[in-house]
User: Fold this.
Amino acid sequence: MSVDLSIKFAGIKFENPFTLAASPCTDNAQMVARAFDAGWAAAVLKTTSVEEEVVELVYPMMAGLDFDDKKVIGLQNIDLISERHIDQVEKDVRELKKAYPKKVVGASIMGQKKEHWQSLVRRLEAAGVDFIECSFSCPHGMPERGMGSTIGQNAELTERTARWVKEAARRTPVSIKVTPLVPDLPHIAHAVQKSGADAITAINTVKCLIGVDIDNFVPYPTVNGKSSYGGYSGAAIKPISLRCVAEIAKAVDMPISATGGITTWRDAVEFLLCGARNLQVCTAVMKHGFRIIEDLTDGLSVYLEDKGMSSVEELVGLALPNIVEHSHLSREYKPVSKINLETCVKCDVCYIACQDGGHQAITLDEKRLPHVDEEKCVGCSMCASVCPVWECIQMVPR
Ligand SMILES: Cc1cc2nc3c(=O)[nH]c(=O)nc-3n(C[C@H](O)[C@H](O)[C@H](O)COP(=O)(O)O)c2cc1C
Assistant:
């Protein structure tokens, strides 16, 4: 069976859902052209601004969070918007649309006032851009100038600014990139919907401080002896972005482009199931290169075939009915831990977790094999979470 990976987002047909997010990966036409050749369906060019906006970057601007033996499970950046202003980006759009008419070219913009936003939109539209993304969400650097997440954290500013953009965009769809750093994201999503914008991109990076050098007391990334809060991205933020996408999908009927931690085809499936129609990737590409598109598209195709589905459209939102208010979860369901002693490697981690973080239901016998006392086990599943062996511990109904 052949599967169709194409999907419509904001009225535009994408050959597959995979899009490069606004970032260093999309900061010039040559890089985007290489990504298109590798198989990416679309790219959002790095956020640009009017010529008079001063953009001065600092270096180093990146610091990774390593955990156990894994490098960069999360990434902090103190990058700003692009140093390349609209005059260069409009040329990139023209060049890319000419060379790749079937690929989707989006462009991200940020302005200080109405005239900036509207002039950016008009110039990009004249250059032939397919869609415009507005960053109301950069958590560092830009808020100091009243830009970025300063807008996205306020529903009125969000609605007003998005209206300006929509007013100027005569035929180009507009997506508003929102920040997770708000107490009530559905409230912001409603503001976006009221503005008339066509779509929502969720989320931008999460404001963070990734670590401190314990010898000289300066946090990372260290710029000549000082540091600053930055934006956190990569696999570590996936649970936050997945929650945000699901919350928005349940709150408003708008197409969602997901970004935040998408690294593997499994992540891609999860975001589609939670209501996304488009998937943007940045950190995984910065770490592994444009070539990951092959794993993403192959994995998604094989998954759809295994499920007997012929199109990626069929996946969108399937998990949403299964996300309910906490009070609606069953109080009658009482699972219990079941350990497969055939595959147990006697590492003790389930025993330790249950003794010191659970209900002391697991004991070890003289061969160091773990056994569950069903009377004491409440079914919390911490043992299954820490067990290093695939499906050795499962939570089953009593
Ligand atoms: C170094 C760097 C620069 C970025 N620059 C921008 C930007 O200019 N505009 C924007 O909207 N998002 C920017 N982002 C955020 C990404 O587009 C993306 O939303 C975020 O990194 C989450 O996706 P990821 O976990 O796949 O990286 C940047 C991210 C990184 C790591």
Notes: The first strand starts at residue 7 and ends at 9. The domain at 7-322 is CATH 3.20.20.70 (TIM Barrel). The chain has a mean pLDDT of 97.
